[in-house]
Amino acid sequence: MQHRSRSAARRDGIPGARLWIATCDGVPVGRRVDVREDGRLHLIDLAVTRAWRRRGLAGALLDGLIAEAREAGLPVTLNVDPLNAPALALYRTRGFTVAAASPPHLLMHRGTA
Predict the structure, then answer these.
(1) Alpha-carbon distance 43 to 54, whole Å?
(2) What average pLDDT does the segment 51-71 reach?
(3) Does the pTM exceed 0.70?
(4) Are the CB atoms for 66 and 75 separated by under 8 Å?
(5) Residue 47: band (very low, low, confident or very high) from pLDDT cuts 50, 70, 90
(6) How many Cβ atoms sit within 10 Å of the Cβ of residue 78?
(7) Model pLDDT, residue 5
(8) HSE (CB half, 13 Å, CA atoms) of 43?
(9) Cis peptide before 15, with omega less than 30 degrees from 0?
(10) What is the mean pLDDT of residues 14-23?
């Protein structure tokens, strides 16, 4: 996995955001965008190209964020579309629970443990 600079994510208007790119043979196949704010790590975006789905890549990208949060003693939050069943399943297997409904999304939370 390759980490691109913070400035790459800032172009998207998210100060302090970090963009992680997963590649295979130099070709981007997935990404994670996150930011550390308000005493938490917040997952902004997690995406994997169609050809690379169902291979554990999204889980690996998410696990990296969870490991960083655990080391820093921070919770992780994210917003997810309640109709995105694959994403909900992934997040639940990683210990996330619904903290609040904020239509059209759900706010999910994972504690520091």
Answers:
(1) 20
(2) 93
(3) yes
(4) no
(5) very high
(6) 23
(7) 42
(8) 29
(9) no
(10) 87
